[in-house]
Amino acid sequence: MTEATAPSVFLVDDHALIRSGIRAEIASAVHLVGEADEVDAAIELICERRPDVVLLDVHMPNGGGLAVLEAVTRACPATRVLVLSVSDAAEDVIALIRAGARGYVTKNISGPDLIEAVQRVAEGDAVFSPRLAGFVLDAYASSGGGEVDDELHQLTPRERQVLRHIARGYAYKEVARELGISIKTVESHVSAVLRKLQLSNRHQLTNWANERRLV
Amino acid sequence: MTEATAPSVFLVDDHALIRSGIRAEIASAVHLVGEADEVDAAIELICERRPDVVLLDVHMPNGGGLAVLEAVTRACPATRVLVLSVSDAAEDVIALIRAGARGYVTKNISGPDLIEAVQRVAEGDAVFSPRLAGFVLDAYASSGGGEVDDELHQLTPRERQVLRHIARGYAYKEVARELGISIKTVESHVSAVLRKLQLSNRHQLTNWANERRLV
DNA sequence: GTCACAATCGGGTTGATCCCTGAGCAGGCC
DNA sequence: GGCCTGCTCAGGGATCAACCCGATTGTGAC
Question: How does pLDDT run across A67-109, given as a tens digit for each residue?
């Protein structure tokens, strides 16, 4: 597990160019054991070859990056996943950490830094872009460290239902008519959702839902 | 202009890894004359070195890809811009063609195909991913060839800027602070956008922008 | 110079949204 | 029977959003 030499790495990205770039930058320092450009092949090959580290682009069609991450952490927990992303939004990062990622770096990282990140993840460290470390620590601190329940999970079924309508752009009155309840009840649910997710208005809620593909 | 040999290419992308990947794939067949990772440097260097082709990632912070494209087509029309993107949404493509792009390929293109695309653009051809060619032709055909008004194109630059902020969930007051203008001015711009796009509220605007990947 | 238009602001109105404090009712649990 | 939670609703106040009216400045076209 603790190779002081070259860690084995599996590469997942749907863009051939980006795979090529990563390969060119890190091939000298790691042992590339495979690549994949889509979800199913990635999961199958990773479980077969059991690399030390999976370099995973989360920005894949149908939110597939998350699917790969979950499958890998479930099927072979010894393999650590280092997420590559273009986004540095705090919500994204936290969701991925919850799903089992051991590191998160944005794609504007330099080649040498990426090599170091891969090696550190292979050795068991958690690696984050400096700007993101604060977010991650905050998230863990505020969650107690143990039963990390996904933010969506703390919403009641009715609240999730109202959330979906709001995220689609319905006005309160329309949601009320749609669900056959009073406007005041819709208000109550929305307030509860905003409070639980620590957001301040329904526009942020729309974006929150979009990022999570709840629409 | 018509080099049967290696065309000169300038590379613009804010991600070092992607630049590295493109470099590795095409360096053998073209003459790379420079790179840039942000808007101002890109415009300056391109106008100075006058490459045959600019390989441009449109997906840059603050919508900077479009700024580079507009500056280049204005300042040195002899230089042709080939757009690289992760998006294959028809609206995006059409907007870029309108802004002067001579080609548009997605990042899942293969190395050899990218080389061929660069060479064809350098020779004056227009190059599109097969799936996109239909959209482009439709857009030109249905417009009679002349006053093609893409919905996004009838917005002024300032309106597009405000639109992006609104779509991200900012309140009017936050947009005003961010852009250093009055709330009333933000209101004016939003009203103009809603009127031009024939929408009735900012929720629809958010969804409109999300569908077009403007966020 | 005139005209159009983009961009900048203001006052004022109406409805929607957000937040707070309540409240009643049903169902599950001890 | 108590207790908790989820769902339902109401009143009222503060804020925001959308639209109406108006205005000035600057730029570029004719």
Answer: 888 888 777 767 888 888 876 555 556 667 667 777 778 777 7
- The reported pTM is 0.45
Q: Which of A86, A71, A63 is nearest to A10 (CA)?
A: A71
* Pick among A12, A17, A87 to test the B interface (most B CBs inside 10 A): A17
Q: Which pLDDT tens digit goes with each residue over A151-182? A: 667 788 888 889 988 988 888 998 898 888 99
Q: How many CA atoms lie within 13 A of B141 on its CB side?
A: 6
Q: Of B96, B78, B79, which is closest to residue B87 (Cα–Cα)?
A: B96
**Residue B23: Cβ within 10 Å count:** 17
CA trace torsion A100, A105, A106, A112 (10° rounding): -150
- Tokens 């042992």 — which residue? A31
Nucleotide with minimal C1' distance from the CA of B171 is D16
Strand C bases contacted by the protein (CB, 7 Å): 6-12, 16-22
Strands lying side by side in the sheet with A31-36: A31-36, A8-12, A53-57, A80-85, A103-106, A127-128
Question: Which pLDDT score is estimated for B77?
Answer: 67
Q: Does B27 touch chain A (CB under 8 A)?
A: no
Taking the CA of residue A15 and the nearest CA in chain B, the distance in Å comes to 4
Q: Which SS3 state, helix, strand or coil, does residue B36 take?
A: strand
- The partner residue sitting opposite B20, judged by closest CB among A111, A169, A207, is A111
Q: Which of A27, A23, A31 is nearest to A6 (CA)?
A: A31
Average pLDDT of span B166-178: 88
* Spacing of B110 CA from D16 C1' in Å: 50
